[in-house]
Amino acid sequence: MLWNTIKTSLHNTLPENEFGLWIKPLECRRQDDQGIELIGPDRFFCAWVEDRYLDLIRTKAEELGMKIEVRLQVAESPPLQLDSARSGQLCLPGTTGGSRLRSLHPAFTFEQFMVGESNLLARSACKALATGDSTFGNCLFMNSSTGLGKSHLTQAVVHQVLRSAPSTRLHYLTAQQFSAEMVKGIRTNAMEQFSKKYVNGCDMLLVEDIHTLTGKNKTQEELNTILDYLIKSGRRVILTSALPANKLSGIDDDFRSRMTSGLVTGIESPDYATRARIIRHKLQLHGLKTDEDLVEYMAENLRGDIRRMESAIMGIKAKSCLHNAPPDLTMAKEVIFKLIGASSDITGESIRDLIGRQFKVSVDDLCSRSRKRSVTFPRQVAMYLTRKYTSHSLADIGNMYNRDHSTVLYAIKAITKDMSRQESVRKQVEMLSAKLNS
Length: 438
Prior knowledge:
Blueprint (H helix, E strand, L loop, with lengths): L1 H12 L2 H7 L4 E5 L3 E6 L2 H10 L1 H10 L5 E6 L7 E2 L5 E2 L29 H12 L7 E5 L6 H15 L5 E5 H13 L3 H9 L4 E5 L8 H16 L3 E6 L11 H7 L3 E4 L5 H14 L6 H10 L4 H18 L5 H12 L7 H12 L3 H4 L6 H17 L4 H7 L4 H17 L1 H15 L1
Parallel strand pairs: 2-3, 6-9, 6-10, 7-8, 8-9
Antiparallel strand pairs: 1-2, 4-5
């Protein structure tokens, strides 16, 4: 078959990880003289392949002497049917058990998740729940702002469970889907079946975007009842939210208490070291050279939402292909400028990251009570630069390093004095200032 030949050629061209994620899952549904029709698992997957690989697929076909049209279609999901042998458990197409009301991204696995201080606890808890380890309990409430990895971790749990324990009766859906399903149950007088599915036919429940239930009292009440039974009976539960539970408005207090009865953890924006690892990993995934100057620049300027890193890397890859040249710092600056505008403002966090890298001191050390010169001097420089380049008050700066405002004031005076008396200190601070303003 032509598609198998094209796949073999693509396998020899693309990195193994990239081929496995985006080409291997494609299946040929139809082939004729006019072209071939490929199907992918969901709309996101097909849009990604169409945007980034369709031209390459057509080129490979032409190399085989076949100038044909290549079409991409989303696989039709068969209607979900009740499996009587599993007490009303919804069957996941392609497996022997479990349910999935949401499409799984093929790259959202534990292996593809970059671990750092900002997400270590969340990742560890999810991994434990996925493998049945009760170290972190059986209920997890996980919150973060958009693009920091909540969905990646929840889907990694589902991937792991389906791979290692496919007979697990698992339900994975958003809070909005749960609410819509419940409303349908009310309208069709099928609430008893709806409740039984989650109470009697569920070993593991994952519900995303709990914050969308604000003000939906009936849905909160129903989910609260289900959670109460599942948690007390030792079933595994993972809930995610864009906001911490204590900041959710329009949420019943009993429901809030139930959701947070187990481990509660947030995912923070990744620090510099984690951002650098993510960028290196994604560059390698796309077959791009991991030049350290490029990685450093991107890690310094792409903070917060990890999706922006992916977008920037795709832009750099496109420019690299267009100019038939390896990616460099100039390409990165052009792409990032279009993505986020001029370099982001200097922040206390960016200064702390820079100081940590330059002096080879961790953030934990800078915030510790250590009085070693190798720690106190970088800390004082960081405080001095933060006062100089940001609008933070002395108290704000002190909070960043677990100190009071008087300690910050002393540090600023000490560095100012050293700069006037020691040329080496002055040059060092000037060099750091230049890096911040570059």
